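Why Sel1 repeat family protein? Reviewers of the renewal asked for a concrete example.
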Amino acid sequence: MLTLAKYLFDTLVKKTLVTLAFIICFSSWAVGKEMYDVSTLTPEEAYEYGELLRVQLKNDAALEYLKFAADAGHANASYVYAIELKRKRSAYQEDDSYQQYLTLAASNGSLAAMRYLYTKAGWVSSAEKSKLREEYHDQLIELGATEPSFAYFRLSQYYFNDDNELSAYYLEKAQQFDVAKAFMEEGERIKNGHISFAFQAKKDRTILRQYVKAAELGYIPAIRRIVAIFEAGGDFQQALIWREKALENGDLTSLLSLSKIYRGESEQYDFVGIDLVKSKAYLEVFLQTAGRDVLPSLYSQAEDDFSKLAKLTDKEQTKKSDYIRNSLMSEKDFIRYDEILDSVQY
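Here is what the prediction returned.
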């Protein structure tokens, strides 16, 4: 079985679509929709399944699997579980167990946890942060011998605020390995003024070009950014093309936005012909894939919209819709790519 840890490294050195690789990683879990007995899984399997549940908005169910893997010493499971505990923790709770799991994750080698602790953890002393930062750097140097692409990008982030020239050097090296986020990162640096341009038009073109390079490697955040750029510029035909690319790369929320467009409920996309077959298929894929833990109102709205579509489509349309639904669900696992997954991956 392809493990998530191996995936997270290998995708950065292979010239393949990042999202497609992620989907392949979890494909064995997608065959059946039943919940697995956590006691029968290895820590790695529990982490993979728990992470799949989490990025499909089934966060409550994911916790059992992530905790099992974390307690067994799985570094990234400890990190993801900690962030989930922090998300669920209200301002009035005194339970700081998420801090314990973050510390555990770092001690077990999670680079994402180490970076979080020395950059964001307010409870960690300055001395400990300095130590963690040094250890993080040393691990990246060691990693460079076997996984240079991953190490290059992380080193570029590491030096960003301290040595712009060295950071830019590592970013360029990461791009040579087709690290998707490295292209997006350069676009962001240009956008934020870290790289200067004399003319705004050239700056905008360069930013978009970098986003496109990342998007062509399947990086969903870049695709979302491109959609936003074209929509802001009033070019909704191009925006539609990129919305479709997001769906092709397994973006869960694109199912909802495209379903709305194809049933004629988006004024900005009124040039798109109504296609109730597609709209119904996309909604059904979302409802069969997503949970309601994180966005319950969104899920309920999708249920209502699907109920209305079911009444508007005849048997032949339903048959076509079912075919599209089955094809989509057999090809990929739709996920909501978020910052937690991104921090583990990059």
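Residues 254-341 form one domain. This is the kind of structural detail the renewal will allow us to pursue systematically.
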